[in-house]
């Protein structure tokens, strides 16, 4: 069944909430099922209602929910109102500000805090808190106020925020030119073969699971990504590593470490919430499950941050403590490793 006739409201009068292009290998799939695979927090009912109301478009025209998406189809979800993430509301949420001056600030973000509003998270984000703290934040190329870069919801650590247009331009260029310094600490499954190394592999959306990123080693799709790693401590079935980012792709460390066979501990999106290394003993399984309870998120912390100040030209470096949930989990593995030896 082909696209329906366009309704009176034209596409360019609507607000785009989602846009996907079906991959080359896409087998014909109903559009409601296709969108269920790609949109976080989506329900079948909501998608079917959107189709019924004429909000799902394929190749520029509305379709019903049973339209079969084919390779190369451009699928959009369009509504008469802007996406909620653009309706930004200041909220009095406490911030752990490590440094602040008239043009920038450095925040230590706790795990569990979303950086910017998006589908399913319209309040309680770092942006909501920043808008309450600072007036007239500049927007970046994605219309995100103040953000020079991002870290994932369940990753803790240091984040740089620009307070003026000039600072945004200057700092964003440093990240683009790879002159900023970012070091993360991660606890990963398995015992790494090398004490240090570099992971190179283009990163793009997973062809079948839109919520995951994926490494394309031949660079046939995705964006260039480079991660330098160094072993900090070997703890038997897990390893504590330092990762320095040369590029800053979505989920870069999480995807790159999985790619080399060392998924982050308790990274549910990439399979790290399963027992990937170790014995089959019940006692060991109980130990790991307790470690998951201590650290109910991926074991990743943005520990250090370095950049050149946009006005003074001074090289600024900031360091942060590994938060309690992660340090307690590391200590638990440290003790287990000692006893098992």
Write a structural description.
The chain is of the alpha+beta class and 341 residues long. It is 22% helix and 27% strand. The protein is built from seven helices and 17 strands. The strands form four sheets. Strands 7, 8, 9, 10, 11, 14, 15, 16 and 17 form a nine-stranded mixed sheet that branches. The longest helix has 17 residues. The termini are far apart.
The gist of it:
By secondary structure, this protein is α+β, with helices and mostly antiparallel strands. It has 7 helices and 17 strands.
Report the strand count.
Answer: 17
- Class based on secondary structure composition and strand pairing: alpha+beta
Low-confidence stretches: 1-11
Kindly state the percentage of residues in helix.
10-25%
Based on Cα principal axes, name the global outline: globular
């Amino acid at each position: 069944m082909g696209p329906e006739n366009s309704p009176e409201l034209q596409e360019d009068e609507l607000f785009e909430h989602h846009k996907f292009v079906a991959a080359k290998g896409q087998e014909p799939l109903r559009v409601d099922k296709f969108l269920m695979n790609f949109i976080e927090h989506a329900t079948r009912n909501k998608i079917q209602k959107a189709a019924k109301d004429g909000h799902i478009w394929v190749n520029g025209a509305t379709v019903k929910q049973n339209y079969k998406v084919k390779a190369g189809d451009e699928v959009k979800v369009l509504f008469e109102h802007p996406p909620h993430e653009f309706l930004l509301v200041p909220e009095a949420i406490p911030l752990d500000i490590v440094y602040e001056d008239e043009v920038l600030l450095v925040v230590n973000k706790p795990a569990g805090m979303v950086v910017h509003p998006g589908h399913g998270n319209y309040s309680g984000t770092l942006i909501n808190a920043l808008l309450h703290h600072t007036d007239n934040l500049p927007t970046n190329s994605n219309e995100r106020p103040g953000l020079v870069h991002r870290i994932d919801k369940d990753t803790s650590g240091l984040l740089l925020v620009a307070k003026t247009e000039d600072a945004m331009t200057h700092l964003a260029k440093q990240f683009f030119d790879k002159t900023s310094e970012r070091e993360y600490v991660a606890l990963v499954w398995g015992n790494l073969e090398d004490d240090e190394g570099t992971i190179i592999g283009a990163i793009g959306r997973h062809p079948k699971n839109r919520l995951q990123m994926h490494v394309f080693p031949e660079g046939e799709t995705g964006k260039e990504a480079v991660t330098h790693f160094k072993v900090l401590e070997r703890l038997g079935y897990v390893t504590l590593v330092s990762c320095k980012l040369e590029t800053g792709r979505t989920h870069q460390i999480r995807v790159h470490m999985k790619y080399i066979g060392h998924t982050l501990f308790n990274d549910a999106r990439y399979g790290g919430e399963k027992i990937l290394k170790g014995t089959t003993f019940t006692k060991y399984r109980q130990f790991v499950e307790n470690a998951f309870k201590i650290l109910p998120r991926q074991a990743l912390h943005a520990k250090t941050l370095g950049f050149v100040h946009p006005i003074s030209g001074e090289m600024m470096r900031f360091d942060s403590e590994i938060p309690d949930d992660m340090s307690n989990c590391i200590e638990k593995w440290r003790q287990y490793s000692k006893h098992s030896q």
